[in-house]
Design a protein that fits this description.
Blueprint: H1 2-55, H2 59-62, H3 68-81, E1 84-91, E2 95-99, E3 102-115, E4 131-142, E5 148-149, E6 156-157, H4 178-181, E7 189-190, E8 195-205, H5 206-215, E9 217-222, E10 225-226, E11 235-236, E12 240-245, H6 248-257, H7 264-267, E13 271-279, E14 284-288, E15 291-305, E16 320-331, E17 337-338, E18 344-348, E19 353-356, E20 369-370, E21 375-385, H8 386-393, E22 399-402, E23 419-422
Antiparallel strand pairs: 1-3, 2-3, 3-4, 4-8, 5-7, 6-9, 9-12, 10-11, 13-15, 14-15, 15-16, 16-21, 17-20, 18-19, 18-22, 22-23
């Protein structure tokens, strides 16, 4: 009996030990399974995220090319005209013109081919239903502490054009047009500290589009600001211009022209200049009464006029050399100096021959002055016969006589005084 009791206790002990061991193993197995599930879940999530990243298109691949504002305007133009638009060229490098506290900038522009549009839009396109449009963005900023008035008369022209091109208001939304933001309805008012940005659309018929692309550049006039409402006799700053390249050839031309002084030959793209000789920062000074005149530099360039300008130079059968001279004037006199009234004389061949400046090849107008108490730049230009320059003149002295200076009424304000500079 005692043996049976001992045997029963032994068997019961085996059951208890076996049960405890199974519970611990079950818990370990459960924990192991849980960890495995968590690891599997994390791996699946990482793989899914990687797949989603591969499926998502990269931003740089889906971002639209060009300026988004231009894209919106082009889409509007297509819808309005029922035409088909194609961007031919775009330039987003800004250009600025300073108007004594008022800054005008060409922020960017795009040239769009526009074809097969509705005949209702044909008139500004030279009665054609194929052509192109230049859309340009401008900003006018008044940094002065007073209100000014600015008329955005940004007329566009190019060599050989038979008209000036201007804004056609039905191609872009009215609220985007700078001619609406600065218009007769608000007296062209630009308040102190105010900046206004807007667009202009220049239309070209197919024939004119081909012509401007052949030239490869266009010029936009930048008018001065005005101090008084409704009056144009009180300009703020000097008229200027922007040069628009319209293709790769235009870019090369603009880059080449940047090396030359901005006489009318350069700014109006009258032909090709080739540098022969130049000198900068000369610094020679002479006094003409209360005006200090500094010879700053000069450029001799061979000039080949384009076919449009060639008739103006038909007397030069042996080629043309242009001499453009840059002076700096410090006007401490009591009257303004009229830049369009300055006359100079160039003596060549050791004093044997002379010629006068060619004012028609400069950009000065009646309003261009150096005010009393201020300083400014003066360019003078002369046309030389290339054969004589090559054979005789280039190795001899060039003597320039400048003065007397005159006011806007053409009156001598230097009492006949002049100064001489030898190149």
């Amino acid at each position: 009996m005692k043996k049976l009791w001992v045997l029963a206790i032994f068997i019961l002990s085996l059951f208890v030990i076996g049960g405890c061991g199974k519970g611990e193993n079950d818990e370990q197995d459960t924990a192991s399974d849980s960890n495995a599930q968590e690891e599997t879940s994390e791996t699946e999530q990482e793989e899914q995220a990687a797949e989603e990243e591969e499926e998502e298109p990269k931003e740089e691949e889906t971002a639209p090319s060009g300026d988004s504002s231009f894209a919106d305007l082009i889409a509007y133009m297509e819808e309005e005209t029922e035409g088909i638009a194609n961007v031919m060229y775009e330039n987003t490098e800004p250009q600025e013109h300073e108007l004594d506290g008022v800054t005008v900038s060409l922020d960017g522009y795009t040239l769009v081919e526009l074809n097969d549009f509705h005949a209702d839009f044909s008139i500004p396109f030279n009665d054609e239903t194929d052509g192109g449009v230049i859309i340009a963005q401008y900003t006018v900023t008044n940094s002065l502490d007073k209100d000014v008035y600015y008329m955005p008369s940004f007329y566009l022209n190019f060599t050989g054009a038979d008209k000036a091109y201007y804004h056609y208001q039905y191609l872009i939304p009215e609220e985007e047009q700078i001619t609406e933001k600065l218009s007769p309805s608000n007296d062209y008012l630009l308040k102190a500290g105010e900046s206004v940005t807007g667009y202009i659309a220049y239309p070209f018929g197919k024939t004119h589009l081909e012509a401007v692309l052949e030239v490869s550049t266009a010029i936009v006039e930048v008018p001065a600001a005005q101090e008084k409402k409704g009056e144009f006799g009180n300009p703020i700053g000097k008229d200027g211009q922007f040069t628009l390249s319209l293709n790769e050839a235009g870019e090369e031309k603009v880059a080449a022209n940047s090396a030359f002084y901005e006489d009318k030959v350069t700014t109006d793209d009258m032909g090709e200049k080739i540098m022969l000789k130049e000198e900068d920062n000369i610094g020679k000074e002479e006094k003409i009464r209360d005006v200090t005149v500094t010879l700053d530099g000069y450029q001799f360039t061979e000039f080949i006029p384009n076919e449009i300008e060639a008739p103006r130079f038909e007397d030069f059968q042996n080629g043309i050399v242009l001499l453009t001279v840059k002076f700096l004037l410090d006007n401490q006199g009591e009257e303004d100096i009229s830049l369009s009234s300055v006359s100079t004389k160039l003596t060549v061949n050791d004093g044997m021959q002379y010629m006068f400046d060619q004012a028609m090849l400069l950009n000065y107008s009646y309003d261009d002055v150096i005010k009393a108490g201020e300083s400014g730049e003066l360019l003078q230009i002369y046309t030389l016969d290339k054969e004589q320059y090559d054979k005789i003149w280039k190795d001899k002295s060039f003597l320039i006589e400048i003065g007397p200076f005159r006011n806007q009424d053409g009156e001598d304000i230097s009492k006949g005084a002049s100064a001489e500079f030898e190149l």
